[in-house]
């Protein structure tokens, strides 16, 4: 196998590592491209191409993550990860870890970790790398990496819900939710929402969003139950779709251009959180984009009629 073929074979893994570290599709793709450039210019052939490339993409991602944290402190409104339609890496032996680690909730938990903790956790708990490989990737001793893994795991476990919904329950609840959304059924929506549900939007100052969030079943049900029918009145459509391994939807205008995405966190038979991404910088990889400001103005006019 040629170096190019080896790299292409490992590209899905490299992207999946970088995405979990960065929470950004575009930055993950850039990290993978930088890894390829470094591989091309390497003067010696590594013993394990997988270990070498995984280490390089991890180091590149850590550097990006450190600079990204400064940018996120200045971010306008809530920051959410870029929605991911499909995780390109598939490993049946680690399917549960892979699915859990790509959810919006898990990616937001990872944001609480230091860059090194995040890298060690992703490589060890998600992808099953050994500590010798992890130590080489992050430039720390194996003993230090074990300590980082323990701290990271503790932080992640503290933030995770105790009981996750099974896929069938989750998908059935999501189907009922989007049905109630289409019908503008406020009472039906309220029954599906947890009492302390939160709805958060990420517009990054570049699209209309819920800058401070909406909280509580009554408030969220009324907002969703009134806003979504107004979208339908101007020809927009809500298309249920799995995003980040979770029930979600893409919202499109009358011409099929993307307005934004929604993902649902489901726990204990109720929807605990609704996260919406409308920042156009985070949606380019999903297709042609609509003008979210123009859509919002049209919706306001429709609601006044």
Automatic annotation (TrEMBL):
Residues 105-156 form the RNA polymerase sigma factor 70 region 4 type domain. GO terms for biological process: DNA-templated transcription initiation. It comes from the Bacteria. InterPro entries: ECF_Sigma-70_Domain, NTF2-like_dom_sf, RNA_pol_sigma-70_dom, RNA_pol_sigma-70_ECF, RNA_pol_sigma70_r2, RNA_pol_sigma70_r4_t2, RNA_pol_sigma_r2, RNA_pol_sigma_r3/r4-like. The keyword Transcription applies. Keywords: Sigma factor, Transcription, Transcription regulation. Residues 7-69 form the RNA polymerase sigma-70 region domain. One of its GO terms (molecular function) is DNA binding. Belongs to the sigma-70 factor family. ECF subfamily. Interacts transiently with the RNA polymerase catalytic core formed by RpoA, RpoB, RpoC and RpoZ (2 alpha, 1 beta, 1 beta' and 1 omega subunit) to form the RNA polymerase holoenzyme that can initiate transcription. This is RNA polymerase sigma-70 factor, ECF subfamily. It comes from Jiangella alkaliphila.
